[in-house]
Design a protein that fits this description.
The protein has 129 residues and is mainly alpha-helical. The chain contains five helices and three strands. The longest helix has 18 residues. The chain binds iron/sulfur cluster (2 copies).
Length: 129
């Protein structure tokens, strides 16, 4: 696909399969395109990745950005600590994985990633029951 599109125009530092907010970073190029592949984004420099996440400053931007009216900072904390019960209680399963919380976070916390991972674990545990 890359060759057909003209190849890289510079040194590629990061590739994302899908859109800029909901897509996921690719480990390498040795993966097939599937029917769910919508796009491949190739970045020469990723400014977000250049910054390490820092502690939450309680600015509330993630809460304002969440379309599901969730509290992403809190859900991410629960996810990182593996607290599935309280994660569910705070409606973590309602997350639509839009990525808005991570996008707006000035502390560069991987909020959507933590919420998404915990959501997968909770759903997998429910399927086992
Ligand atoms: S990824 Fe989930 S928690 Fe974050 S803003 Fe979107 S719906 Fe809300
Ligand atoms: S946007 Fe980031 S820094 Fe602000 S409250 Fe949410 S997690 Fe904390």
């Amino acid at each position: 696909m890359l060759e057909a599109a003209g190849g890289f125009k510079g040194e590629c530092k990061k590739m994302i399969s899908g859109g800029p907010m909901m897509g996921f970073a690719m480990f390498d190029l040795d993966v097939p395109a599937t029917k769910t592949s919508s796009s491949l984004l190739c970045f020469t420099e990723d400014e977000v990745a250049a910054y390490e996440p820092t502690a939450c400053i309680n600015c509330g931007r993630c809460v304002e950005a969440c379309p599901e009216l969730l509290v992403p900072s809190r859900l991410a904390d629960y996810g990182e600590r593996g607290q599935s019960g309280v994660f569910e209680k705070w409606h973590g399963l309602e997350c639509v994985e839009c990525g808005s919380c991570s996008y707006v976070c000035p502390a560069k916390r991987p909020l959507a990633q933590s919420v998404k991972t915990m959501k997968k674990q909770v759903l997998a545990a429910k399927r086992k029951k």
